[in-house]
UniProtKB/TrEMBL annotation, chain A:
Known EC number: 2.4.1.-
MF (Gene Ontology): dolichyl pyrophosphate Man9GlcNAc2 alpha-1,3-glucosyltransferase activity
Gene name of the record: LOC117642771
GO cellular component, one term: endoplasmic reticulum membrane
UniProt cross-references to InterPro entries, sorted A to Z: Glyco_trans_ALG6/ALG8
Pfam families: Alg6_Alg8
Name of the featured protein: Alpha-1,3-glucosyltransferase
Residue ranges of coiled coil: none
Pathway this chain belongs to: Protein modification; protein glycosylation
Membrane-spanning segments: 12-28, 117-138, 150-166, 173-189, 195-222, 234-255, 303-324, 331-350, 393-412, 432-455, 467-486
UniProtKB/TrEMBL annotation, chain B:
Tree of life domain: Eukaryota
Protein name: Alpha-1,3-glucosyltransferase
Subcellular location: Endoplasmic reticulum membrane
Any one Gene Ontology BP term: protein N-linked glycosylation
Species per Swiss-Prot/TrEMBL record: Thrips palmi
Family membership: Belongs to the ALG6/ALG8 glucosyltransferase family.
E.C. no: 2.4.1.-
Ranges in coiled-coil conformation: none
Amino acid sequence: MSSSSSVDVFRGAGVLTLLGILILRWGVSLHSYSGQKKPPMYGDYEAQRHWMEVTHNLPVKEWYFNTTNNDLLYWGLDYPPLTAYHSKLCGFIASQIDESFVALGTSRGFESYAHKLFMRWTVIFSDLLILIPSVWWYFVSRHKTSDDSSLVWIFLVLSHPGLLLIDHGHFQYNGISLGFTVAAAAAIFQNKKLLGSMLFVFALSFKQMSLYHAFPFFFYLLGDTLKGGILKGVPNLAAIAFVVLSTFALLWSPFLTEINQIKQVFVRLFPFARGVFEDKVSNVWCALNVLIKIKNLFKNEEMALMCLVSTLIVVLPSCLDILFRPNKKKFVYALINSGLTFFLFSYQVHEKSILLASIPVALALPSDPFLSMWFTTVSSFSMLPLLLKDGLLIPTVALSVFHIVATTLMVNVLASTSLKSNKSDNQNVTNFWWWAVFSLSMMGCAVLTLLTVAVKPPKHLPDLFPLLISVYSCIHFLGFLLYFNYKQFSLSGISLRQTVDEKKHK
Amino acid sequence: MFWSVVLLISCVKLLLIPAYRSTDFEVHRNWLAITHSLPVKKWYTESTSEWTLDYPPLFAWFEYFLSQIAQFFDPKMLIVTNLNYASPETILFQRLSVILADLMFAYGTRECCKYVTNSGLRKSSRWNFRWSSPSAMLQLLLLGNAGLFIVDHIHFQYNGFLYGIQLLSIAKILQGSYVAGAFWFAVLLNLKHIYAYVAPAYLVYLLRNYCFPNAPANASLKELHAHFSMKRFTELGCTVLGVFIVSFGPFLLMNEIGNVLGRLFPFKRGLSHAYWAPNFWALYNTADKFAAVAGQRYKLLNVSTNAAMTGGLVQEFEHSVLPSITPRMTFMLSLLSITPALVKLWLSPGNPLHFVRCLVLCAFGSFMFGWHVHEKAVLMLIIPLTVLAVVWRREAQIYLVLSTVGHYSLFPLLFTAFELPIKVLLLLINALYAFLNLSHLFALDKPAASWTLPLLNRTESLYLVGLLPLFLFEQVFHPALGLSDKFPFLPLMITSAYCAIGVLYCFVQYYWHFIGMSGSNHKRKTH
């Protein structure tokens, strides 16, 4: 086969991959969204629409303030400026299609076939512009050669059930901030540190939850820059600091004019008073709450301090490791560990924040396909109570099964076709004991799903099943946290390229 | 691997549950209700709903069987007077029933794949990887068929189940189990009688190959007579007749057979369906319209054509310039068009692939010239042709043109905004997969000429690429130019005429190809 035709085949298969992930997205889009036909507050769909309304109609100065035209108690804007700009852009497009989509005040709770279509398209376009190219870049740049295997990983990451369900079903734009994070990681893999830091600031400025990943980025950049000696590293570090600060300054400039504005934005971004967790979250505090009523026992301030201290203690080893032995393979695991630790231990956590751990886990698919698949499935399962409320049970089951089957099928096919397949990497896919444990875990998920759907909980315990799901998932996540920490430490500190270079020297 | 793929595709089908549903959804709900709550005697006389039961008895029993499960989802859907009832449970049940019934399609596909793998057709060391072998391609082309997704899982019907049985009967005949093949085809006929159109191929092939064993290809009548096996003939006849007796027997005993047949063959419909299927009559109708308009403008004709360009797509279609067509004429034309193929099949015994080819041509003939043909019937050509597409290069070429045009011609079935991206994505995925893999299979070492799609010639490529401007015209320019009010049916007419040209081209090419093929040697030489 000539090389040109193989490129053609690759290109064709690439388009096929793209079309495949698009049809899954559009399939989920057909389903209902959060708060559909549920006045007076509706759900995240209405929140996003309301932000479009507010940002489209009001001057920037009013966005984060409670004014006569901006009732912060009704889905007040509580994400950073980039989200607000995105809303403004979408709001403008909406106003061009139909003014009533975003009419100030009167459009509250606006729902229609055409509006749903518009909203779904905005998410698809955001994915096409940011998430999909980012993931593409991440895998193609990492594998250097454009072979089929990178397409397989791209397909599997972009068919992540949790992300599809939350963005295209429930309705949010997590793909944007996660896409920026993935792009930042991809840039760092190519030693484009300045670009990487800039992209990560974009992620931070879209969703403050991206802070879950701030430690690995900070420590990796610090460690890697200073690796060659402090004198050589400091100018580079200064350059990174400059890029970060100026990107921040640029993105946040409309709000940096008055102290009042800055203060108010931060009050909105970090709603301290909303407590340690909302609804039922699969993290440590919610699980502990089953045994001891920590919510009643401690004040919010005490709770926040406990969260801070425990998070820092748990995340510290991974951070120190990446600081002193920075390497690219470790970096992905550091992202996982930091994201997962923050989800499990930090203050004011939402169930959807598991995506911040789950997307880095998906990026680790090539080296850990089995564990990654397992984690992805459990992470979608942990959001089941929320997804059930949105009427998304069928796509949840469909996409989870799809993900498991697709991963095993494609990993097996890769293992059988690829001559240079790394045996040690795919070992645990075929290990019987791993499969037995995995099957048991999945059966647990299935039973809990069935119970939640079919059985009425006892009267004095209305939240029994959501709680069971939280605790069950939390146990999984703790186990995964241990595994991924172990995995990060067991990787040698020397980067791959260095080993190759050394071999060449010998 | 096979069942993994089936599972993956079923998951995508599950995602389509809340998609748009046509009135066929209500049709099948009504049939569930009729078979569940009425005695068998009344199945074919009940007429509360306008969607009366008009499939053969075995399909009614299939609905009866489904209704036994349906009652656990929502018993209210089983009330005959509960017209247009569509609770979430009803939707879930009906959609799930289609998805599960598709397991029959998966089974039929698997049997065909087994034949392709075991028969030694296109055996080559080139396909060391399981998933780029011809049978793996066949499996994905069939299971991922865009047309079935559109018609079954969005529009709503049970075609996958029926085509599964057809594929099974084809596979049985390919494998040499003639009686089993005949049995499954008889079952199919009693599920949906539209398959009677391809019955001549079965009849000729089974008669010639099973009832006249060992007769030489060019046998005279006398020789044939000498080889006739009464035992085999009886065996075959009893099998087919047995299925019909089980199906129609009860109605015969209850003296209901007249009502059943009256429902199965209503002759009150027009030449073309509301949206013209892309066949010969679509071109005929279009020519008639143009002639009428031209005649009016140049005052050449004195025809009352006030309805010609404004009303347009009514079912009872009276031609204004060209002679009107009667059912008898369409029947004769269909029969005439398939006769040479049947003769050829008779003269080339022992070649099961020729049977499939003739089957495709029979479906072609009835699709091109039949009375009141539905656009969905194009699947009757595409699905059997898929089996041949992975075997013979020329057939792959025709498959690529036909499947792309045929699936495109199903687009007007879905006209809602949410389903638009889905139908486009389905078609693109299907076509792209087929082009990539079939060209890989057949034209590996051949450099493609510039400006052509793989495996196709320049005209065919240009024609297929022309679907894009056609789509854009229909979606963007037609409404943008303000033609929607003046010529509301124009996009539909152009679509069916444009697609009809492609289908007609495939018909002629394929006929030519079949007639020119050698009779006996069905083993493919390595390309």
